[in-house]
Amino acid sequence: MNRNQSLLFKIRKVCTLFHILRITIPAFGYVSSTHPRLLFNKAEEKEVKKLIKKDPLARELASFLKEKADSMVVLPQLTYDLNKYGNILYTSRAYVTRLGTLSLAYRLYGEQKYLDAVNKTLLWICDYKDWDPKHFLDTAEMTTAVAIAYDWLFDALPESTRQKVKESIYKNAISIVLREYKKGGPGSWAKRETNWNVVCNTGMTLGALAVAEDYPKETATILENAARYMPICLKHFAPDGVCYEGPAYWGYTNSYLSLYLKAVNDNGGDQGGIGQLPGVSRAAVIYKRTLPPSGQRFDFGLASTEEVMNTPAFFFFSRRYQQPEVAEWFRKEIEKTIKQNQPIHQLFFLSLPWFNPASPTQNENIPSLEVYHNSINDLVVLNGNRKEKGSVFLVAKGGLPNQAHQQMDCGTFIIESDSVCWTEDLGADDYALPGFWDGKPGGDRWKYFRNNNFSHNTLNIDRQPQYANGKAFVCEENTRTAHPYARLDLSEVYKVQAHKAFRKFTLINDHTIEVEDEVEVRNTSSTVFWTAATKADVTINGSVAQLQKDGKVFYFRILSPEGATFHTYPAYNTYPGEKPIKGITMLEIACPAQGGKAKITVEMSSKNNSNSF
What we know:
The protein has 613 residues and is α+β, with helices and mostly antiparallel strands. 35% of the residues lie in helices and 19% in strands. The protein has 13 helices and 19 strands. Strands 9-10-11-12-19-16-15-14 form an eight-stranded antiparallel beta sheet, with no helix packed on it. Strands 3-4-5-6-7 form a five-stranded antiparallel beta sheet, with no helix packed on it. The protein has a four-stranded antiparallel beta sheet with strand order 8-13-18-17, with no helix packed on it. α2 packs across α3. The termini are far apart.
């Protein structure tokens, strides 16, 4: 064999090897033919094992993983029982946690008990009659759980288990989604404008990629359609990265979005350009920057303090979009989770494979005013100098109540100083309440206290709800002034009672923010009511309210109208079945219109500027 023939032979060998190591997905590209190929490959596994040896937090996280995995080995299997909402979603999520944790523990520690537990769990799940396709989120999350375990432990699982899992993924997920893509209308879970779109399409993508060598054409169809339909939801992240469904659904949507982007990037690439859609790159930064210094979330919409947000999506986004401030912040969240043994997100331990040790090269510069625009929920953030004791932080929102997972909370806000949040958002109520999803104007959804504007830190006119089809948005903002401000146009949400309504937030100094409301009412005898919910102890002295909590003090003072006073009443449930409300005081100002107009200005400060107390 001469030199040229030898060279040609070697080239052919390399090409043959390349095709052996890649599965051709029609019209889409190549997928690795080896396992694991989802989210955490063999090369990354080696790097993580090195990281655990040299990084103290990664080592602590690995120990925490082992502790949790050990506890899961002995857990009983969950039966297929519908919950009060008529689905098995929480069962699916429990298995995402269990299979992901046990599978990762086996990869890092190699102990047989983890493999045995995964094998038994996979066989149990695959014996379910189905994965609840009527509520397809359940199917999507169960497919995620099974796909990760199947892919990660492919070489260690018995052949009989692999065959059963492969058949179950096809029967319970792939065959169903192929019909849905073909026949589902705009309201289909695959094509909605909500979190369902991203979660379901991601679950199907993971399931398809896990078994791509067996179903290459079906995998191509799923990859193509997921990339086609996910922008229907993600268009609402534009332009600045706000997730309009609120922080709870931020976590749900972006956790699954991070799975999708990692999976496709590692298997043929992000052919649909999902990661480059407007706003997506900013999603994690926006979440972090709208948190007050204490870390208490602004739980607008159908969110609540019970939502677990220690999602590895923060590490994924920090890596993909070079955001060390997010990585540094999330490492602190991981430290708190471990030290306080806090509840964990179902994907929490992906924080180890995706661990990001990056830190900013310089101290973070926090602007006094930031406005994040969105087609549904604009957000406004005001920051005092955080180096100053008693500095204030405020985050406020616009809104469109009739959209998914929204409330009548247009214009609401939370304000904080000294790591104490002085106003509250009561969060979501029970989704099973009668008429809860009837969100049209006058719909039953709005009779529930948490859902209407009477529970929020905003206005009501003549004790009437906001107009569900109206939109509130930032109409003016100014950072080039000694007193930065942003102004919300609330006219549409009060259109039934008012011609115009505006709310303005102004940073007066590091310790003080003013909120100014100007309303032009339709009925000259109308009264505009200003309300705020607080967990603090409240003492009233005419136009000044002193709030006390956790040894700290804060003041609300009415600057206009002259002679107006505060009064208080306990927040209350309005219908049977609502989640109980305890320890919330409503602070209220009543402002009768004068000449068809009402103006309310309230100073909120950590300083006692009136010397009333």
